[in-house]
């Protein structure tokens, strides 16, 4: 390979700077997150003294544990900080929900970008005039796991890290599909969400074993008062 060709290949692999001003604005007025989620945000900040935590996977053993609820409220809490652009990604390509929560279109989104059908800025929505950006799942795909195996997913994450201080990944349940385990490899750690009186000890044990202890930043319990509680 010639020197010019090598330089061209290197430039092609380099992450392209992300201009957040190009993202469409969604006229959604978000509620102020509760004190519990602001406390969770603070605990994540404290953990950063011991390890880099920019990208966080929000996972749960099963559906109904409150995973997406936790991801949404933590994202809102993160975005309250000045000059703290926060991105919430709906990587649950099987049964996405974030587009419904924020009343935005499901597409264009993550799958559209990975399939080369949309540019990155148009797959995001800025929530009002806040620091929160949401990337919906995009159009339905037949094989979500195969899509997540594409090299473009890692390139996508490299680009997103250039533009956001905190990135939260909502994912399918750990025990329903392998997607979350794959996404865990793209994150700096995971929050494991459970629901009191709903998540069984067996499901919890299998979920912890699936992620691995070193990957888990904390375990949160929904369905308690106050919400959430847990180890972090």
Distance between the termini: 50 Å
| Uncertain residue segments | 1-12, 226-232
**Count of domain modules:** 1
The proportion of residues forming helix, as a percent range, comes to 25-40%
Secondary structure category: alpha/beta
CATH superfamily: P-loop containing nucleotide triphosphate hydrolases
The total of beta strands comes to 9
Gyration radius (Cα, Å) is 18 Å
> What would CATH call the architecture?
3-Layer(aba) Sandwich
Q: Name the CATH class.
A: Alpha Beta
Which outline best applies? globular
Q: What does the largest sheet look like?
A: 9 strands, mixed
Order of helices and strands: HEHEHEHHEEHHEHEHEE
For this structure, the quaternary state is single chain
Number of helices: 9
| Mean pLDDT across all amino acids | 86
Name the features.
232 residues, alpha/beta, disordered N terminus
What does this molecule look like?
With 232 residues, this protein is of the alpha/beta class. It has a single domain (3-231), classed as 3-Layer(aba) Sandwich (Rossmann fold). The protein is built from nine helices and nine strands. It has helices at 3-13, 35-47, 67-79, 98-101, 110-114, 144-148, 151-163, 179-184, 201-211, and strands at 25-26, 55-59, 86-90, 125-127, 132-135, 166-170, 189-195, 216-222, 229-231. Strands 1-4-5-3-6-2-7-8-9 form a nine-stranded mixed β-sheet, sandwiched between helices. A hairpin with a 4-residue loop joins strand 4 (125-127) and strand 5. Helix 2 crosses helix 3 (67-79). The radius of gyration is 18 Å and the shape is globular. The model is unreliable at 1-12 and 226-232 (pLDDT under 50).
């Amino acid at each position: 390979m010639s020197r010019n060709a090598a330089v061209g290949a290197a430039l092609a692999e380099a992450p392209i700077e992300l201009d957040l001003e190009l993202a469409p604005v969604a006229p959604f007025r978000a509620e102020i997150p509760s004190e519990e989620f602001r406390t969770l945000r603070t605990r994540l900040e404290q953990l950063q003294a011991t390890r880099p935590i920019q990208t966080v996977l929000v996972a749960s053993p099963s559906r109904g544990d409150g995973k997406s609820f936790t991801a949404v409220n933590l994202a809102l809490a993160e975005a309250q900080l000045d000059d703290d652009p926060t991105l919430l990604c709906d990587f649950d390509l099987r049964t996405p929900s974030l587009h419904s929560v924020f009343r935005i279109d499901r597409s264009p989104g993550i799958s559209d970008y990975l399939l080369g059908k949309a540019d990155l800025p148009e797959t995001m929505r800025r929530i009002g005039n806040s620091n929160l950006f949401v990337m919906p799942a995009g159009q339905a795909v037949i094989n979500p796991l195969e899509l997540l195996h594409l090299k473009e997913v890692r390139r996508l994450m490299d680009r997103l890290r250039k533009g956001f201080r905190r990135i939260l990944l909502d994912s399918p349940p750990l025990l329903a599909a392998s997607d979350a385990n794959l996404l865990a490899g793209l994150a700096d750690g995971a929050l494991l969400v459970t629901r009191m009186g709903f998540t069984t000890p067996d499901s919890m044990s299998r979920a912890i074993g699936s992620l691995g202890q070193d990957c888990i930043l904390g375990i949160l319990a929904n369905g308690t008062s106050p919400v959430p509680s847990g180890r972090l």
